[in-house]
């Protein structure tokens, strides 16, 4: 008889627009990256798990077992993830979703989308103290998500016939440090944060008009504003400049900054592959291409 295995999957995400300004009440737009996946497998084990509440995966499994009231059940888990950690790609939320789905799959329990989101956010709160919920929402969604703090989420349909190239700088992002840095000089940063908020609104309008040229232009503007508030790094700036020089409609850093990823909007797949190759040659440690 074959061994029983519970399997759970989840996908990644990336911020298109609204980094940092989202903290000050402006909107942010995040995109699901459906081809970049995490898979969790749960199997029977000889002894019960020891939980580490500094570890998102452990916390997510605890949240699922606690809900099912079976914390004593001996299981083991393994994760296979294509999502790099600390790059603004929703690694911890994706891992939590995959793990909770795998636990429910293993114990053959029903898991509604609502319950899954509650359990993921519970795990994220333990691991990250005060998450916005945007990562979890986008990693659970097949659609882009617009988020405004204290107001909530709405889905956006994106059909641009364009491609997003995502490039990993290889440098861990430092979101908390970046957020504190922006807050420290809030008064002088406010004009840039307002600009970032306005650019996000403009991108949302351009998405409905399928105006990818304008979206690219606003992405370039956003990158300059993020540079001005001190959250970009030289490696990200180099990759952004390279993408634009090689025909991207626009490019910017993505996420909290001080490392992490850059994104570039490109109008066809062939060009996206060429830019992707150039970014690797320039020192990006990995790239992905997502159709928009």
Automatic annotation (TrEMBL):
If you read the UniProt record, what top EC class would you report for this enzyme, in one word? transferase
What InterPro entries is this protein classified in?
GHMP_kinase_C_dom (IPR013750), GHMP_kinase_C_sf (IPR036554), GHMP_kinase_N_dom (IPR006204), Mev_gal_kin (IPR006205), Ribosomal_Su5_D2-typ_SF (IPR020568), Ribsml_uS5_D2-typ_fold_subgr (IPR014721)
Give the pathway: Isoprenoid biosynthesis; isopentenyl diphosphate biosynthesis via mevalonate pathway; isopentenyl diphosphate from (R)-mevalonate: step 1/3
Q: Where is the GHMP kinase C-terminal domain?
A: 206-283
Q: Does the keyword tRNA-binding apply?
A: no
In alphabetical order, the GO MF annotations are: mevalonate kinase activity
Signal sequence region: none
Q: Domain named GHMP kinase N-terminal: which ranges?
A: 61-137
A single Pfam family, by name? GHMP_kinases_N
Keywords on record: ATP-binding, Cytoplasm, Kinase, Lipid biosynthesis, Lipid metabolism, Magnesium, Nucleotide-binding, Transferase
What Enzyme Commission number(s) apply to this enzyme? 2.7.1.36
What domain of life is recorded for the organism?
Bacteria
- Record-given protein name: Mevalonate kinase
Q: What's the name of its gene? A: mvk
